[in-house]
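Subgroup meeting minutes
Present: P.N., E.W., G.H.
Scribe: E.W.

1. P.N. recapped why we're keeping a running log of single-chain structure predictions: easier to compare across weeks, and new members can see raw inputs and outputs side by side.
2. G.H. added today's entry (178 aa).
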Amino acid sequence: MLIVYPENCGQFKANTPYVHEGTLYTIIRVRTDASKQCLYIGSFQDYEKHKTSRYLANKKYKQTTNGRLKQIAKQLIDCARKRIQNRKRGILTITSDWIVPRLARGKCELTQLDFNLAPNSNLVPSLDRINSKNYDYSPENCRLVLRQVNVALNAWTEQESLPVFKALVQAIEAKQLY
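Output recorded in log:
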């Protein structure tokens, strides 16, 4: 399979003949999005092999530690972006380059407990805005904490929550909870 970059990719259609450097090929796929305009030419079997090899390479990369951390960082950024769009206020200036080293440390920046990357765990990493009244997701206003910590601090600051958390810990330790 070959990838060629002719002008006016939009005029071509898949499953039609295409001559490239004197050889007759079949157009397998026409890609006309803004970032990349090209034709995939060759046999359909070549294209299937190409797709499979790219899929497997991508899957293998995501299984590496760095690939997994980048994937988690992208998910955190996407969630922050959606929250900003829903609220219609705040800006997003953190990047995966800011998140990945914090993920690599593997610990909550507030409690120092280890992250658990299992999907349904309360110990997964979560972006916490330090000042919740500031809607920006910036390096100055964010930290990487456990989701459970982020939920617990959702409505109140650390200083406002501390007396309640201390009382909760004392009650649990004294087994006074019902």
